[in-house]
Amino acid sequence: MQHVEVSQYVGAPPEAVWARYTDHRSWTEWAGIGTVTLDRQGMPAPNGVGCVRVISAGGTRTFEEILSYEPPHRMTYTLRKGAAPIRDHLGEVVFTPEGAGTRVTWRCRFESRIPGLGGLFRFGITRLFARVLRRLAAQRLA
Fold it and tell me: How confident is the model at residue 120 (pLDDT cuts 50, 70, 90)?
């Protein structure tokens, strides 16, 4: 089992950071990971529990389902299908007040589908999470 954890300070209150991060379709504009659409809306609509976000990049599509949605504190999700060579992916994003801003902690666990490459995938996911959170921190949030 591989584990990833990345943390980033964002200079805005948790409610504003939560609103931007969980607006899945807005990721297309700011996250730098490709196009993000919704395959299915969740509850509360559109981004809550049961929402399936589709990340399209480099000719591949990844489907992630929101499992828990606890504004403005915590969200969990799982990888439902896609080209990623991983399985049993469970992600968690936690938003903690810190001074005048928010500490965002994004973690996940997963298994590699290819023996011996879990560490390489962990390295890539760590870099991806860090890049997305840096871009989130660069947003002008209320």
Answer: very high
- Residue 119 phi/psi, 5-degree rounding, is -65, -40
- DSSP H helices, the chain, are 14-21, 27-30, 118-137
Type of residue numbered 127? R
Q: Is the pTM of this model over 0.85?
A: yes
CA trace torsion 93, 96, 101, 106 (10° rounding): -20
Going along the chain from its start, the domains and CATH numbers come out as 2-32+70-137 (3.30.530.20)
Give the number of other Cβ atoms within 10 Å of residue 44's Cβ. Answer: 11
pLDDT 10s digits, 36-71: 999 999 999 999 999 999 999 989 999 999 999 999
Q: Output the six-digit token pair for 127.
A: 């870099």
Q: Are 138 and 9 in contact (CB under 8 A)?
A: no
From the CB of residue 14, how many other CB atoms can be counted at a distance below 10 Å?
Answer: 20
Q: Which amino acid is at 44?
A: P
